[in-house]
Amino acid sequence: MLYSKSFASINREVPKDEMSVNGQLLIKGGFMERVTAGVYAYLPLGWRVYRKIEEIVRKEMLAIAAEEVYFSVLMPKDLWIKSGRWNSFGKILMKLTDENGNEYILGPTHEELAAELARRNIATYRDLPRAIFQIQDKFRDEEEINSGLIKTKEFIMKDLYSFHATQQDLDIFYEEMKKVYSNIFSQCGLKSYIVEAAGGNFTSENVHEFMVKSFGGDDTTVFCELCDFAQNKELKQVKENDRCPYCGGLLKEEKTIEVGNIFKLGTKFSEDAGAFFVDRDGEKKSIFMGCYGIGLSRLMGTIAEIYHDEKGLKWPTSIAPYPVYLIKMNDTDPRVDVRIKKFTDRLYNQLNDRGIEVFYDDRSEVGGGEKIIDADLSGIPYQVVVNAKTLQKDIVEIKSRNTGKTEFLKRSAVASYFKKMIQ
Predict the structure, then answer these.
(1) Full-model pTM
(2) Phi, psi at residue 323, to the nearest 5°?
(3) Considering all CA atoms of the chain, what is the largest pairwise distance in Å, rounded to the nearest integer?
(4) Domain 322-421, CATH homologous superfamily name and number
(5) What is the fold of 3-309?
(6) Nearest CA among 382, 370, 384, 372 for reference residue 320
(7) To the nearest 10°, the Cα dihedral for 255, 259, 263, 268?
(8) CA–CA dist 123, 422 (Å, integer)
(9) Cα 9 to Cα 43: distance, rounded to the nearest angstrom
(10) DSSP H/E element including 184
(11) Which of 143, 194, 211, 373 is deepest in the core (most CB within 10 A)?
């Protein structure tokens, strides 16, 4: 992609009331713009990051044989009356009425509709188990919306729903999803922790959240210093300086961000919807359900919250908008400048031909210092710089944004270098 042809530019400015680190960096880096408080538009660079995250998540969902669906955002009131959550879900439920007086909600989650569709499509034990997932916008009228993409009124979520004939089958799938989720976050460059938490509006039982440690976190988690025990502070079962209930280790509090959660719903939503199946003995039984969520936009904000320095973002290569930021340094001598441009254009084409995605800063009106500043803000993992000095030796300068390490390579070796580095 040529910078000169890109729809949006790196702007280096943020709204004065954008308080979060991830919100500031994503706006300054040209990844998104704020539409209003708690609502953001993704710009081309930001959408590329989001799609890389989505690709990782979708691949892992398909690997466990889950089928992709797409539910309606708009849901009628009666579904939520059946489940009892029309009133109990709280003020964050976005309700609206059409011109005929019919009442709806904009989906904050989709357990009700998933159960309703199970009622229509699952009839006997032969139809179980099943797993479906979607990636879709969700809406919640959150009050505290000063956390960038960490907490918003509109967000993108992957939610998976599983349907089982027995509690045991649900338990087995649930444990497998713990491994799948940990793998997803690892691929996105995050160290996640499985944390005990309350079920809230989803289930009366304790559930599991996936947390990452961050000073900008909106949650507090109690961790054991010796074993894997971790619990959301909201449960209020343990506190800092208590002893671990499993190993006796000392407990410490840390700020965290929730990047995913999994719930054993049991038969609550299926029974509300009338979703039953006939077992091998001909008996009518309730379907056991589980749900498993990852906020993809929230995940993007979390990564930005963690991977940055004073110069800007530092994206993990797996989800970076481009692996390479190619910089043509302009020269005051027009003849030299022409040669630099020809050299850099050839390199750009060579990299593209080898399947290496490149963001090429080809601007002629911007100085080299500004280009480096913009490259740092973008967080793209590798900066490739071409100037008069390197041109003379037929080499390029390659700098790793994440490590700060600089190398010099012959132009002919650059494509092979990146094919190896970004695989």
Answers:
(1) 0.94
(2) -75, -25
(3) 87
(4) Anticodon-binding domain (3.40.50.800)
(5) BirA Bifunctional Protein; domain 2 (3.30.930)
(6) 382
(7) 100
(8) 47
(9) 9
(10) helix 167-187
(11) 211
